[in-house]
Write a structure and sequence with these properties.
The protein is an alpha/beta fold. The protein contains seven helices and 15 strands.
Length: 249
């Protein structure tokens, strides 16, 4: 296997023994990984943010509040990209795993081949992740994953790029919102105002009172008063339907 940057892996298991067993299986896979171990979901969630891990192994029956399924729901609210693999002694929650877009549903005792397959899937996802190269303030350039960008906002001579993984980034003054628009796939990116481009993947809905998109993080992106809200409502619904169709193939 070609050399690669280590995967960032989190394990949330119910006992020290299970933590150790899973960590050993990850090591035996031969895939470089930096492993963080958690004995309960509370500790895990307190330090979690989007983009922190490539893959999370979550015990469905971890014995604390919130339980594994509920914790996975909170993970998905923040990070739609991370690979989640449930570990379990029962098939009772298989349907829930589909709802939460879990990549794997692994029965105990865990098998080395299943762990390796999960890690390989996470590697493929990371390598195939689309990025956009942007010139940032201070003269630096950065490759920013497109799926992590919630919206762009023009502020004065700079553009703020609001992301799930790196917070708010500011571009250099040479970057123009119009030029940025031509480099983005449409959909899911949509120019809704002279000062805003939104990623429909991170839009929760449209607030008709404020004439704006409601973004997943609680922010709002203005919709031009010259545009009809119905056009944007239709575009959002069409994107949701098309995306669901692709995921179910």
């Amino acid at each position: 296997m070609e050399q690669t940057e280590a995967l960032l892996v989190a394990i949330c298991e119910d006992t020290p023994e299970h933590l150790e067993q899973l960590a050993k299986l990850i090591e035996k896979s031969g895939i470089p990984a930096e492993v963080s171990r958690f004995g309960n979901t509370g500790d895990f969630l307190r330090g979690f943010h989007a983009g922190k891990y490539d893959v999370i192994f979550m015990d469905i029956y971890v014995s604390n509040d919130p339980a594994g399924i509920a914790a996975a729901g909170q993970i998905r609210e923040k990070d739609m990209f991370v690979t989640i693999a449930f570990t379990t002694t029962s098939l009772d929650h298989t349907l829930e795993s589909y709802r939460l877009k879990a990549a794997m549903y692994l029965e105990k005792p865990l098998k080395e081949a299943d762990i390796k397959e999960t890690l390989e899937l996470a590697l493929i996802k990371r390598r195939s992740r689309a990025v956009i190269n942007i010139s940032l303030e201070g003269g630096k350039k950065a490759d920013i994953p497109l799926d992590s960008i919630m919206f762009f906002e023009q502020k004065g001579n700079e553009i703020e790029v609001v992301t799930t993984s790196s917070g708010t980034l500011r571009t250099s003054r040479s970057v123009k919102l119009g030029d940025m628009e031509t480099r983005l796939p449409s959909p899911p990116f949509m120019r809704c105002h002279r000062s805003f481009i939104v990623n429909l993947d991170h839009v929760l809905g449209i607030d008709k009172d404020t004439h704006s998109f409601t973004i997943r993080n609680g922010d709002r992106a203005d919709i031009s008063q010259r545009k009809r809200l119905k056009e944007f409502e239709d575009a959002l619904q069409l994107w949701i339907v098309e995306k669901a169709g692709r995921e179910n193939r």
